[in-house]
Amino acid sequence: LVTARCVVSSIMYVTGNNNIPFFVSLAMTKWDMRRVFLFLCAFVRLLMGTTTTVPTRFLLFSDSKALKFLSVTGFHPREVLPALVNVSFATAVEYSAATQQIYWTDSSHDAIYVEELQGGNRSQIVKGLSNAHGLAVDWVSSLLYFTDESLSLVGVSSLDGRYVMSLIDTDLHLPRPIAVDPEKGYVYWADWASPSKIERAFMNGKQRRALISSGLSTPNGLVLDLSNRKMYWADSTLDRISVSNLDGSSPSVLANFHGVAPFGMALDHSTLYWTDRQTRAIYRTVVGAGSATTSIYYSTSSVPFGISLYDTSRTGGTNRCSSSNHGCSQLCLPEPSKATCACAYGTLHSDGKSCKVPDEYFLVATNNAIRSVLINETGHDLKDVLEPVWLDGSNSATSVDYNAKSKMIYYGDTTGQIVEVSTDGAQRVAADGLGVVNGIAVDWTSDLIYYTDSSHD
Q1: 331 CB contacts (<8 Å, ≥6 apart)?
Q2: Fewest 10 Å CB contacts: which of 149, 293, 335, 365?
């Protein structure tokens, strides 16, 4: 699969055309040595069955429909790995060097996806989002932090998406970029509030405070220089890049621009790379002593969005969660010199480590899922007791009930089905062809289901 992907990507790159046959394109295309080499390289890989050696550092960026990999060494930027294609609308991009996996937010499917660096095994790991624009991997604790501007929250999940929860959901308006400092235990994000601000909190959501609350309009890019304890951000309305210390002190404008709209930002030592949607380019800003020099690094035919520097050395590190997950049964959330166990589903047991399911909770049918929430719980984003039962998108749940004897959940939908959900989340159609099922009631003593159908008088 990887080799085939390389050949197809290389042929399209050689011809410069995605729509016409290869040999016709070949006759129309002016060859150069770089394209010839890329094609021959892919052909040799096809014969030998080998995979591409992953460079130690390169840029990962999204042009909304594909994820591309660009060199940061040499005289001219070049694509160093075959692109990950058939992406719907990728906005933020991130990676895990330890597992060689790429993560991205998909605004079309309201989800977060993961795929292996060289292609294959693509999975939708976080569902039920609305407009996720920020993404950050905690490579020490194996966590994924994200923002959703429509749901107005900062969320966190395990890297495999098994456990997902809202971390901060109060006094947020339009949270956008997000970044983490996992060894120190801090998460940073920018919020297009009124006024806009850049905030920081412990990675368990505690000790939240605003770092920058003036001189901002629409902060899109946000990146941390952990070695030099600096924070950089780009503002797409004010057309500038600014810098401060990680605690928000000593803020200053690093570079001013005109006619650009910075979106994503990445850092490679003293060089900032950032995407601009208006000129459809990736810019490079070299940071010097009290000055900065900016130039176009790479131009693309599509609109670029998120960008990240893939660095194979970004592995390891230590915090209280890095060893055996601190004994937590679900999520371990770090903070400076400490850690907190958290339950994405259920409630925290008295031991402070394990999670339990309460005896009573509500089942709620929504457009895209069956959710479970605690009785007497209040808040902006109600906490799930059980892992949500996600619908496939072709239908909407209209009603739900529970069989206490068999521990099965049943829901009716708009396609005229009643679906049975087992304790492991597996779904089975129990009845279909029923019209529009607007209400169901389970008789657990007789194993019968009663329902109403609004499509018949």
Answers
A1: 143, 156, 157, 158, 163, 165, 341, 342, 343, 344
A2: 293
Cα–Cα separations (whole angstroms), residue 338 to 162, 301, 309, 351, 358? 23, 47, 29, 16, 27
Sheet holding 389-390, edge to edge: 361-365, 369-374, 389-390
Cα–Cα distance, 248 to 231 (Å, whole number): 8
- Contact 200/182 with Cβ under 8 angstroms? no
Contacts of 51 (CB under 8 A, 6+ apart): 2, 3, 45, 118
User: CA-CA distance, 198 to 415, in Å (whole number)?
Assistant: 45
Give pLDDT tens digits for 237-288: 999 999 999 999 999 999 999 989 999 999 999 999 999 999 999 999 999 8
Degrees (nearest 5) of the Cα angle 302, 287, 95?
A: 50
**Residue 105 and residue 133 in contact, taking contact as beta carbons nearer than 8 Å:** yes
Write the burial class of residue 329 (CB in 10 Å: 0-12 exposed, 13-18 middle, 19+ buried): middle
Residues in the chain: 457
Q: How far is CA 360 from CA 190, 318, 329, 353, 388, in A?
A: 38, 39, 21, 21, 16
Does 51 score more than 70 pLDDT?
A: no
Strands across the sheet containing 209-212: 175-181, 186-191, 197-202, 209-212
Q: Where are the beta strands (DSSP E) in 246-321?
A: 252-256, 262-268, 271-276, 281-287, 292-299, 307-311
User: How far lies 205's CA from each of 34, 138, 294, 336, 378, in Å?
Assistant: 49, 14, 36, 12, 18
Determine contact, residues 122/145, Cβ cutoff 8 Å.
no
d(CA 148, CA 168): 11
**What digits encode the pLDDT tens for the residues 421-456?**
998 889 999 999 998 899 999 999 998 999 999 887
Q: Which two tokens mark 212? A: 């920058």
C-alpha span between 309 and 55 (Å, rounded): 12
Whole-structure pTM value: 0.85
Q: How many CA atoms are closer than 13 Å to the CA of 183, on its beta-carbon side?
A: 9
Best CA proximity match to 83, nearest among 272, 269, 312, 301: 301
